[in-house]
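Hi R.,

As promised, here are both runs. First protein below:
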Amino acid sequence: MQPATDLRTAALAVLLEPDPPKKVSATRALWEHLSQHTLNTELQIAEPRGLPGRPERPFLVPPQQAPLRSAFSTKGRAALLHAIAHIEFNAINLALDAVWRFTGMPAEFYLDWLRVASEESLHFTLLSEHLNSLGQAYGDFDAHNGLWDMAERTADDVTARMALVPRILEARGLDVTPAMQNKFAQAGDTRSVEILSIILEDEIGHVAVGNRWYRWCCERDGRDPEHYGDAIAKQHRAPRINPPLNESARLAAGFTPAELARWTSDRT
């Protein structure tokens, strides 16, 4: 019998996989077969080249050069769905990266992020299938790389990663998803509305994972979580948190009323 593979090493191998369907399948299999792996939270793993594994397409362009997306034509809906699918593909990579990269965290940290990766894989699959029904495929439109750019900036600091990727970049999806659902509904695309409902519900939980571990890191280090995140955001040039905010979703995801009040008052 072969010895069990370390879970974090296995997550890195999946992260390196460039083919989206294979990455999705391997991610979900890794989550479903946890018992076949050990977990060494202190294992130091050398970072290989080629992170993250991604296909040759979509071509990555600056955000301002990404294609315009309108929900009121078939091509426009496909472009919008493609942009969301690209976010979900990056989210798979981000969650896997958190699993392998950061040492010395509680076991629950690695299990939380592996579960997130598995759920992001489902989101990507649902979006890809619907995109195919519109005659397009993932890779057919240009995309930008903002999520992974922030991952690289926070590669050496788990607190910064938790503060900026789930709490700022991914949490923005909580704010904009209802408006996107309205656009798809007006265009008669009920399947997109259904998929976005699944994603929104899961993403509340994913942002909550980021909030949980950000606050855990702050408590460990004796920092005030209510204000330390602002300093990290400034240091790493994170996007501003601008209203309107989906306050109910953000509260469910673990943001405090004080945080929401401060972000709203600072931008009015």
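And here is the second one, sequence first, then its structure tokens:
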Amino acid sequence: MLGTRELEINLGPQHPSTHGVLRVKLKLDGETIVESDPVIGYLHRGCEKLGENRNYIQTEVYTDRMDYIAAINENLVYIEAVERLLGVEAPPRAQYMRVILAEFQRIASHLVWLATHALDIGAMSVFLYCFREREEILDLIEGYCGARLTTNAVRTGGMRLDFPEGWLGSAKAFCDEFPVRLKEYDTLLKTNRIWMGRTKDIGVITGERALAYGLTGPCLRASGVNYDVRKAMPYEVYSEIEFDVPLGSVGDTYDRYLVRLEEMRQSRLIILQAMEKMPQGPVMNKVPKRIKPPAGEVYVVNEGPRGELGVYLVSDGTDTAARCRFKSPCFVNLQALPELAKGHMVADIVALIGTLDIVLGCIDR
């Protein structure tokens, strides 16, 4: 007599907490989630097919439009795939420059994640604090390549230019100040009982289940699985730099927060080491103006802020890829949402979408 009828509702695709045009079909028993079904495809990007109808140089500009919160990481993995096809390698100084910029982009991406995730759960101040530091990083990126969001900073065979005068000094000043800022975020949130109540034991996933879903990045490492492409399959000069891979133990929303917070600390250490070890020398190798790799195929992976980024290219000997495919960590990680959400309250779906750190441009690529 007191039973409730299951109700089906839509969250999104226009809801701001879905972090883009994501629609989630929810089946509710009262306010408890019985089923959740993410629906994608509203963005209509077509970057992969564009990559098969533009030459290799023209295609690079589409990579920073996919995960636009981490454009340099997307640029880098695509350029590495083209270089592998060509059989060329960037000079040592350019490789260090790539690592410095990629880690700054990782920090900036995690700051956007923390700002929006905290705002979704009701912590307004953290949003303002995180964007304060992100603006400083975007100033550095703009100072190098002239763009703040869609950067297009990496080139086949190296980097387009060396760091301008004074750039490394500004980068060092940011790294010196950043630990104090990180402590501010952590203090604001750990002393907030609402934040703790809405993240601890919410969306728990074991390491075994995370692997079964194919999760990568912080979502996997928060469940205790030690897998980071920078350690497992080092690229550029990561093998010459010392850093730790932070791991969680519970696999809940709070652990995913702790892992990303520690990743920002580790990225800062990577940047400082790279700036110290970076040699003098050229930043660009000789490559043909018209890039026409020999026939063949490659698959290259990098560790992006959201997980494993992959690029699969097939060359038929022309200046346009015969096949161009991108592996999106956002696309893979999103499929775990139904398991994370089942049995939680409808208000928790907002925290769970945020904890996955998805970018719809990367999913609807």
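A quick note on the second one: The mean pLDDT is 93. Let me know what you think.

Best,
J.
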